[in-house]
Amino acid sequence: xxxxxRRYGGRTVVARKAERRQRFxxxxxxxxxxxGYATCSLAEVCAAAxxxxxxxxxEFETREDVLTAAYDRIQDDAAAAVGAALVALDAPTDPETxxxxxxxxxxxxxxxxxxxxxxxxxEVVGVSDRMEDRRRARRHAWSALIETALAGxxxxxxxDAQLTTALITGAVNGVAHEWLLRETRPPVEDLVxxxxxxxxxxxxxx
Length: 206
What we know:
GO molecular function: DNA-binding transcription factor activity; transcription cis-regulatory region binding
Keywords: DNA-binding
Pfam families: TetR_N
Organism: Nocardia mangyaensis
Distance between the termini: 59 Å
CATH architecture of the largest domain: Orthogonal Bundle
CATH topology of the largest domain: Tetracycline Repressor, domain 2
Order of helices and strands: EEHHHHHHHEHHE
Protein name: TetR family transcriptional regulator
Protein backbone atom coordinates (compact mmCIF):
# COMPACT_ATOMS: atom_id res chain seq x y z
CA UNK A 1 0.00 0.00 0.00
CA UNK A 2 1.40 3.39 -0.97
CA UNK A 3 1.35 6.40 1.31
CA UNK A 4 -1.36 7.97 -0.86
CA UNK A 5 -3.54 4.87 -0.36
CA ARG A 6 -3.31 4.85 3.43
CA ARG A 7 -6.49 5.77 5.24
CA TYR A 8 -6.95 7.97 8.28
CA GLY A 9 -10.43 8.25 9.68
CA GLY A 10 -11.74 6.38 6.64
CA ARG A 11 -10.18 8.78 4.10
CA THR A 12 -7.06 8.46 1.99
CA VAL A 13 -4.09 10.79 2.31
CA VAL A 14 -4.95 12.22 -1.10
CA ALA A 15 -8.54 12.93 -0.05
CA ARG A 16 -7.45 14.58 3.19
CA LYS A 17 -4.90 16.70 1.35
CA ALA A 18 -7.53 17.80 -1.20
CA GLU A 19 -9.91 18.70 1.62
CA ARG A 20 -7.26 20.82 3.35
CA ARG A 21 -6.49 22.62 0.11
CA GLN A 22 -10.19 23.32 -0.40
CA ARG A 23 -10.46 24.72 3.12
CA PHE A 24 -7.52 27.04 2.52
CA UNK A 25 -8.99 28.26 -0.77
CA UNK A 26 -12.42 28.91 0.73
CA UNK A 27 -10.97 30.65 3.79
CA UNK A 28 -8.60 32.77 1.70
CA UNK A 29 -11.39 33.80 -0.66
CA UNK A 30 -13.58 34.88 2.23
CA UNK A 31 -10.98 36.70 4.31
CA UNK A 32 -9.29 38.41 1.34
CA UNK A 33 -12.71 39.67 0.23
CA UNK A 34 -13.72 40.78 3.71
CA UNK A 35 -10.49 42.45 4.81
CA GLY A 36 -8.47 42.94 1.63
CA TYR A 37 -5.57 40.84 0.44
CA ALA A 38 -2.99 43.53 1.21
CA THR A 39 -3.89 43.67 4.91
CA CYS A 40 -4.40 39.96 5.60
CA SER A 41 -1.58 37.93 7.12
CA LEU A 42 -0.82 34.29 6.53
CA ALA A 43 -1.71 33.61 10.16
CA GLU A 44 -5.20 35.03 9.54
CA VAL A 45 -5.68 32.79 6.52
CA CYS A 46 -4.69 29.74 8.55
CA ALA A 47 -6.94 30.74 11.44
CA ALA A 48 -9.88 31.22 9.07
CA ALA A 49 -9.25 27.76 7.60
CA UNK A 50 -8.80 26.19 11.04
CA UNK A 51 -5.46 24.76 9.91
CA UNK A 52 -1.80 25.28 10.78
CA UNK A 53 1.00 27.09 8.99
CA UNK A 54 2.73 23.75 8.54
CA UNK A 55 -0.33 22.48 6.67
CA UNK A 56 -0.42 25.67 4.61
CA UNK A 57 3.15 25.18 3.45
CA UNK A 58 2.32 21.63 2.42
CA GLU A 59 -0.05 23.17 -0.17
CA PHE A 60 1.37 26.61 -1.02
CA GLU A 61 4.68 28.42 -0.88
CA THR A 62 3.41 31.95 -0.28
CA ARG A 63 0.31 33.94 0.57
CA GLU A 64 0.20 35.09 -3.06
CA ASP A 65 0.11 31.47 -4.17
CA VAL A 66 -3.14 30.83 -2.33
CA LEU A 67 -4.60 34.03 -3.81
CA THR A 68 -3.56 32.86 -7.28
CA ALA A 69 -5.09 29.43 -6.71
CA ALA A 70 -8.33 31.00 -5.47
CA TYR A 71 -8.43 33.30 -8.50
CA ASP A 72 -7.79 30.40 -10.86
CA ARG A 73 -10.58 28.38 -9.27
CA ILE A 74 -13.04 31.25 -9.68
CA GLN A 75 -12.05 31.74 -13.31
CA ASP A 76 -12.16 28.00 -14.06
CA ASP A 77 -15.63 27.71 -12.54
CA ALA A 78 -16.87 30.66 -14.59
CA ALA A 79 -15.40 29.27 -17.83
CA ALA A 80 -16.98 25.87 -17.11
CA ALA A 81 -20.36 27.53 -16.46
CA VAL A 82 -20.19 29.48 -19.73
CA GLY A 83 -19.09 26.43 -21.70
CA ALA A 84 -21.86 24.26 -20.27
CA ALA A 85 -24.49 26.92 -20.94
CA LEU A 86 -23.41 27.34 -24.57
CA VAL A 87 -23.26 23.59 -25.18
CA ALA A 88 -26.80 23.26 -23.87
CA LEU A 89 -28.15 25.65 -26.52
CA ASP A 90 -30.00 24.23 -29.48
CA ALA A 91 -28.08 24.60 -32.75
CA PRO A 92 -28.15 26.72 -34.80
CA THR A 93 -28.23 29.60 -32.36
CA ASP A 94 -28.61 33.27 -33.19
CA PRO A 95 -25.87 35.63 -31.96
CA GLU A 96 -28.07 37.47 -29.45
CA THR A 97 -29.15 34.25 -27.75
CA UNK A 98 -25.57 32.99 -27.60
CA UNK A 99 -24.33 36.27 -26.12
CA UNK A 100 -27.14 36.46 -23.59
CA UNK A 101 -26.59 32.87 -22.54
CA UNK A 102 -22.83 33.22 -22.15
CA UNK A 103 -23.03 36.55 -20.34
CA UNK A 104 -25.72 35.31 -17.95
CA UNK A 105 -23.69 32.20 -17.12
CA UNK A 106 -20.55 34.23 -16.46
CA UNK A 107 -22.24 36.87 -14.33
CA UNK A 108 -24.24 34.33 -12.36
CA UNK A 109 -21.12 32.26 -11.68
CA UNK A 110 -19.19 35.31 -10.54
CA UNK A 111 -22.05 37.11 -8.80
CA UNK A 112 -23.49 34.14 -6.94
CA UNK A 113 -20.85 34.66 -4.24
CA UNK A 114 -19.79 38.27 -3.54
CA UNK A 115 -16.57 37.00 -1.94
CA UNK A 116 -15.53 35.27 -5.14
CA UNK A 117 -16.48 38.29 -7.23
CA UNK A 118 -14.48 40.67 -5.05
CA UNK A 119 -11.38 38.48 -5.21
CA UNK A 120 -11.62 38.04 -8.98
CA UNK A 121 -12.34 41.68 -9.80
CA UNK A 122 -10.63 43.69 -7.06
CA GLU A 123 -8.20 41.90 -4.76
CA VAL A 124 -5.98 40.44 -7.50
CA VAL A 125 -5.39 43.80 -9.18
CA GLY A 126 -1.86 45.18 -8.85
CA VAL A 127 -0.65 42.51 -6.44
CA SER A 128 2.54 41.77 -8.38
CA ASP A 129 3.95 41.50 -11.89
CA ARG A 130 3.36 37.76 -11.72
CA MET A 131 -0.31 38.23 -10.87
CA GLU A 132 -0.72 40.81 -13.62
CA ASP A 133 0.72 38.30 -16.08
CA ARG A 134 -1.77 35.75 -14.77
CA ARG A 135 -4.67 38.17 -15.22
CA ARG A 136 -3.55 38.99 -18.77
CA ALA A 137 -3.33 35.30 -19.62
CA ARG A 138 -6.86 34.83 -18.33
CA ARG A 139 -8.10 37.75 -20.43
CA HIS A 140 -6.54 36.16 -23.50
CA ALA A 141 -8.19 32.84 -22.65
CA TRP A 142 -11.58 34.55 -22.40
CA SER A 143 -10.93 36.36 -25.68
CA ALA A 144 -10.18 33.06 -27.39
CA LEU A 145 -13.33 31.49 -25.93
CA ILE A 146 -15.49 34.39 -27.16
CA GLU A 147 -13.96 34.39 -30.63
CA THR A 148 -14.32 30.60 -31.00
CA ALA A 149 -17.89 30.54 -29.73
CA LEU A 150 -18.99 33.32 -32.08
CA ALA A 151 -17.16 31.86 -35.08
CA GLY A 152 -19.01 28.61 -34.44
CA UNK A 153 -22.32 30.32 -35.19
CA UNK A 154 -21.08 32.30 -38.18
CA UNK A 155 -20.28 35.56 -36.43
CA UNK A 156 -17.21 37.67 -37.13
CA UNK A 157 -15.82 40.26 -34.75
CA UNK A 158 -15.31 43.74 -36.15
CA UNK A 159 -11.77 45.08 -36.40
CA ASP A 160 -8.84 43.39 -34.70
CA ALA A 161 -10.33 40.30 -33.05
CA GLN A 162 -8.06 40.37 -30.00
CA LEU A 163 -8.72 44.04 -29.35
CA THR A 164 -12.46 43.65 -29.90
CA THR A 165 -12.71 40.71 -27.51
CA ALA A 166 -10.61 42.69 -25.03
CA LEU A 167 -13.19 45.45 -25.33
CA ILE A 168 -15.98 42.98 -24.61
CA THR A 169 -14.25 41.36 -21.63
CA GLY A 170 -13.24 44.75 -20.27
CA ALA A 171 -16.83 45.98 -20.48
CA VAL A 172 -18.17 42.85 -18.82
CA ASN A 173 -15.75 43.03 -15.91
CA GLY A 174 -16.10 46.79 -15.59
CA VAL A 175 -19.87 46.53 -15.31
CA ALA A 176 -19.57 43.57 -12.93
CA HIS A 177 -17.13 45.56 -10.79
CA GLU A 178 -19.47 48.54 -10.56
CA TRP A 179 -22.40 46.21 -9.83
CA LEU A 180 -20.44 44.53 -7.03
CA LEU A 181 -19.67 47.83 -5.29
CA ARG A 182 -23.26 49.09 -5.32
CA GLU A 183 -25.22 48.94 -2.10
CA THR A 184 -28.40 48.17 -4.03
CA ARG A 185 -27.65 45.91 -6.97
CA PRO A 186 -29.88 45.66 -10.04
CA PRO A 187 -30.77 42.13 -11.18
CA VAL A 188 -28.26 40.25 -13.29
CA GLU A 189 -30.78 40.36 -16.17
CA ASP A 190 -30.30 44.13 -16.39
CA LEU A 191 -26.55 43.69 -16.77
CA VAL A 192 -27.07 41.02 -19.42
CA UNK A 193 -29.36 43.34 -21.40
CA UNK A 194 -26.83 46.18 -21.28
CA UNK A 195 -23.82 44.05 -22.18
CA UNK A 196 -25.58 42.10 -24.91
CA UNK A 197 -26.50 45.32 -26.67
CA UNK A 198 -22.92 46.55 -26.46
CA UNK A 199 -21.48 43.26 -27.73
CA UNK A 200 -23.91 43.08 -30.66
CA UNK A 201 -22.55 46.41 -31.91
CA UNK A 202 -19.11 44.82 -32.23
CA UNK A 203 -19.96 41.83 -34.43
CA UNK A 204 -20.94 41.07 -38.03
CA UNK A 205 -23.01 38.08 -39.07
CA UNK A 206 -21.37 36.25 -41.96
